Q: What sequence folds into this?
């Protein structure tokens, strides 16, 4: 058993250890915040090295996680179960067995036929994990990185529209900042008149807000489509119109002389699985 | 192999094991949307059993591993966990008679302080953690779960500290 009180010498050593560790961590935080390449590359290499370990750990614990998800998602499972029961009468046993594989295939096919991408170069990727922090960090990790030509700034989309943009790339992984992040601002074009404004995420997965650039005199209606892109010097490609969502509510702001648009996303952020990364980087 | 090397090896093994449990399982074990923070718990248990110095060192490495999981600045968790590990050691020292209940209370309190400290530092560096509407829920859930998990973590930390799994040291 550890002695109840440490001798003076030990206590002094403890304080010395704490001082050294505190200085060390403050140095690491500062260097990382200033984007010192040595720290970033060390961090990226460690992430890359740990990625297979994390993958293996997740694979091993799949049954436990499934069991837990089964317990916590009981209502959802019951609903799904009822739906499946009704489907059982219609579908053959073979179709049921193939269902999972077909879903997987259709998810991939969906991403191959994104109409708004045209001939733009892109890369399909899979979301490997969601937020690792308890606090909302509005990021997801995907399983492709710089070795396949991905870079910081690349827009990430699904068939539904804009998901976010890459903010960190390692050799085999990338971190995507979601458009739901309140810090994610992007130039948008709204409606048939292509009014231009600036919008940002709100922290939830339902609403995007356009609160700059749409004058009181601009003609905007509910159900109008909102696109990212189509604007020069934006963080999105100027020649692409990437859907964000549709206008749900319009509130005039007399003080700022603008219309504030509440936009419902077309992407379902709760079901992100396969995404497509557009190989385009902003000019600056 | 001398005692010091054995100690380092055992703690390293425990850190890696805790990391694997955190990424493999606990990230998805989210009562009310909050997952436990066993890397923080490990720092606290190290402080309780090995003293403030051990708590700070284990907390530093546990925090660094934790930072690799997160998208925030590198070193924030390392600083918070090291300080909390140190404080847990100091607190345990000030207790006249250790008991399981006191260890649980220290683990719960340390977890609350650790999460709050992480939120404050992250906010200073541009995140929205302190203004997160779920802040108090996160603190409460992490504290309660870590307080309970401490009963399982302490025997493992005892082994790492070389006190033996069945030692009566809390």
A:
């Amino acid at each position: 058993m550890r002695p109840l009180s440490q001798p003076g010498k030990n206590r002094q050593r403890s304080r010395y250890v704490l001082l050294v560790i505190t200085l060390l961590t403050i140095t690491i935080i500062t260097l990382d915040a200033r984007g010192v390449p040595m720290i970033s590359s060390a961090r990226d290499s460690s992430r890359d090295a740990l990625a297979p370990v994390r993958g293996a750990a997740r694979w091993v614990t799949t049954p436990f996680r499934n069991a837990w998800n089964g317990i916590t998602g009981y209502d959802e499972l019951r609903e799904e179960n009822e739906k499946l029961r009704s489907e059982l009468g219609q579908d053959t046993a073979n179709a049921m067995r193939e269902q999972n594989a077909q879903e997987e295939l259709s998810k991939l096919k969906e991403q191959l036929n994104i109409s708004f991408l045209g001939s733009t170069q892109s890369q399909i990727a899979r979301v490997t994990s969601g937020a690792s922090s308890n606090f909302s960090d509005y990021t997801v990790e995907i399983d492709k990185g710089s070795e396949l030509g991905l870079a910081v700034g690349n827009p990430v989309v699904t068939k539904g529209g804009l998901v976010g943009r890459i903010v960190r790339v390692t050799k085999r992984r990338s971190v995507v900042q979601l458009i739901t992040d309140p810090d994610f601002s992007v130039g948008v074009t709204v409606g048939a008149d292509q009014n231009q404004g600036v919008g940002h995420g709100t922290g939830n997965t339902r609403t995007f807000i356009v609160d700059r650039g749409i004058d009181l005199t601009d003609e905007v209606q509910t159900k109008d489509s909102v696109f990212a892109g189509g604007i020069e010097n934006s963080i999105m490609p100027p020649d692409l119109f990437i859907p964000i969502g549709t206008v749900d509510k319009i509130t005039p702001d007399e003080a700022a002389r603008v219309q504030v648009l509440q936009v419902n996303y077309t992407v379902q952020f709760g079901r992100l699985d396969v995404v497509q990364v557009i190989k385009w980087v902003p000019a600056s | 192999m001398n005692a010091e090397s054995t100690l380092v090896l055992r703690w390293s093994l425990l850190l890696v094991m805790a990391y694997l449990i955190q990424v493999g399982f606990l990230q998805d074990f989210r009562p009310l949307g909050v997952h436990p923070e066993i890397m923080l718990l490990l720092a606290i248990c190290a402080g309780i059993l090995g003293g403030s110095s051990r708590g700070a060192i284990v907390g530093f490495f546990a925090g660094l591993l934790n930072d690799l999981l997160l998208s925030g600045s590198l070193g924030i968790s390392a600083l918070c966990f090291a300080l909390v590990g140190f404080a847990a050691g100091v607190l345990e020292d000030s207790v006249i008679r250790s008991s399981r209940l006191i260890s649980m209370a220290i683990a719960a309190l340390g977890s609350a302080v650790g999460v709050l400290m992480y939120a404050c530092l992250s906010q200073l560096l541009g995140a929205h953690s302190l203004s997160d509407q779920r802040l108090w829920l996160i603190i409460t859930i992490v504290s309660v779960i870590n307080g309970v998990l401490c009963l399982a973590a302490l025997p493992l930390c005892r082994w790492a500290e070389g006190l033996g799994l069945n030692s009566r040291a809390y």
Notes: Chain B touches chain A through 57 residues (CB under 8 Å). The helical segments of chain B are 3-26, 38-50, 52-69, 76-94, 100-124, 135-160.
